[in-house]
Here is the input.
Amino acid sequence: MPDILCFGEPLLEFNQRPDTGASLYLKGHGGDTSNAAIAAARQGASVGYVTGIGADAFGEDFLSLWRAEGVDTATVKIDPHAHTGIYFVTHTDKGHAFTYFRAGSAASRLAPSDMPDAAIRSAKIFHLSGISQAISGTAADAGFHAIDVARAAGVRVSYDTNLRLRLWDAPRARAVIHAAIAQADIALPSYDDAVTLTGLDQPDAIADFYLRLGCPLVALKLGKDGVLLADQSSRERVPGRVVNAVDATGAGDTFAGAFLARLVAGDAPRQAAAYANAAAALATTGYGAVAPIPRGAQVRAFLAA
Here is the structure.
């Protein structure tokens, strides 16, 4: 059984290539927790994915991807009555923007009864996100069910805020995400998400907010500035790494996967965060969510340099 089990929705990606001088889109793979699962697997971790996909060509594409990446697919449900979601990424001088076609996707139809309780109990870390719970009411319930199963079995729960206000309004997002983080062991909020969710703008105050919810370890992602790592007794800034960034798609997911992989491998949180910062930085040097995710040898060479 996998050491890290991720739950969420995969989305086939079509990413604009502005560097070509034409409106061309490169097919790829996305979905925040799928990206995190692949990132963890590329660092050498044992990883599985919990999701639903359609009985369609895009679903088959994902199965092939996960198997090639070494992500266990035993907990992937194939739904013959629903489709696999897709999204488009466009780039302007203001950054990247997303357009989604995901309503009614197979993953959004998952419910508590679809959760693989035995696999969750055997994992070391169960990872989910705000998006995992935002895609439908039943998916939100499934996430809470999985958290309950994990906690009862002594499995650590990791939660990435990944706020998408197109999927739900701010009050519901705030209520669900904070209720989940209150039961989590590892909180992975991004700074922009946290400002919206908490109304705070100082990193230390944001870290204090999530610690007060009851989560024992907070890694507040600060983009190129690295991460603020905090627990009840200490905190420190772990600096980011400087690279020639071209596309930030999936960088936060890469951080999450790499961070969890190193925790499972036995690293202290500070070591894991420094490693994950390097992995996330490298992930911004290419286009798409999955293709630029580095493997362990690349991250180690980057850190050594």
